[in-house]
Write a structure and sequence with these properties.
Blueprint: E1 2-4, H1 13-26, E2 31-33, H2 39-48, H3 62-70
């Protein structure tokens, strides 16, 4: 499970809490992404995943959503 966390305050409490909780629940399968990727590398990454789950209560990640749908991925 890849979890993008390369936004906001890198030393912030939120990121630490997400990493701590994710590791407790998913163990080695939890992979936090804390650094930005080169755009082409990020597109290759998005192309390599099969299913994406977004847990938003408002519109977010539209660029990722549109790109993933364009790749034929399940969102």
């Amino acid at each position: 499970m890849f979890v993008p966390l390369s936004y906001g305050d890198p030393k912030g409490v939120y990121i630490k809490e997400v990493i701590s909780t994710g590791t407790k629940i998913f163990g080695d399968k939890f992979i936090p992404m804390t650094e930005f990727m080169d755009f082409d590398k990020y597109l290759n990454f998005l192309g390599s995943i099969n299913i994406t789950i977004f847990n938003h209560n408002r519109q977010q990640a539209m660029g990722n959503t549109i790109t993933l749908l364009g790749f034929g991925k399940k969102v």
